[in-house]
């Protein structure tokens, strides 16, 4: 097999684990709903004090988002770093967790490498 074909298969498998199963889709829908809630709350609702609506997105992205943020601060980002880094860390951590959920769901179902569609004693 060529390297290009192997890379294509790996990307396809990663995309299927991230977006192609029920567990990952439910998780991504929850993150999307929380993000829409935070956006509406930030843009259209007036608050006397600060709103903690953004915490819900961090709760859904934890614990991997904190690994990215700590890594960013260790590389020299000052006081939380730029806003684009924070949003990129959120996006990457949510996608990594969706992929991990897909992998775990596939592991629990028992599908994947080494399994055949035929019964063992047939």
Describe, in plain words, how this protein is organized in 3D:
The protein has helices at residues 3-19, 22-44, 55-61, 64-74, 83-109. The chain is mainly alpha-helical and 122 residues long. The longest helix has 27 residues, at 83-109.
Strand content: under 5%
Shape: extended
Number of strands: 0
The sequence of SSEs as H and E is HHHHH
CA-CA gap between termini: 32 Å
As a whole number of angstroms, the C-alpha radius of gyration is 19 Å
Largest sheet: none
Assign a percent range to the helix content. Answer: 55-70%
**Count of DSSP H/I helices:** 5
Structural class: mainly alpha
Average of the residue pLDDT scores: 82
Which residues sit in consecutive blocks of at least 5 with pLDDT less than 50? none
Give a topology summary:
Layout: H1 3-19, H2 22-44, H3 55-61, H4 64-74, H5 83-109
Helix pairs in contact: 1-5, 2-3, 2-5, 3-5, 4-5
List keywords for this structure.
about 120 residues, mainly alpha
Briefly, what is this?
With about 120 residues, the protein is mainly alpha-helical. It has helices spanning about 5-20, 20-45, 55-60, 65-75, 85-110.
């Amino acid at each position: 097999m060529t390297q290009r074909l192997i890379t294509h298969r790996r990307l396809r498998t990663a995309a299927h684990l991230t977006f192609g199963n029920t567990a990952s889709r439910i998780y991504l829908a929850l993150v999307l709903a929380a993000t829409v809630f935070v956006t509406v709350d930030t843009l259209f609702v007036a608050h006397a004090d600060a709103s903690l609506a953004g915490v819900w997105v961090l709760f859904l992205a934890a614990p991997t988002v904190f690994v990215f943020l700590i890594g960013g601060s260790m590389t020299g980002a000052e006081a939380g770093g730029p806003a684009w880094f924070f949003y990129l860390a959120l996006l990457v951590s949510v996608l990594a967790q969706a992929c991990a959920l897909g992998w775990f769901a596939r592991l629990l179902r028992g599908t994947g490498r080494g399994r055949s569609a035929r019964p063992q004693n047939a």
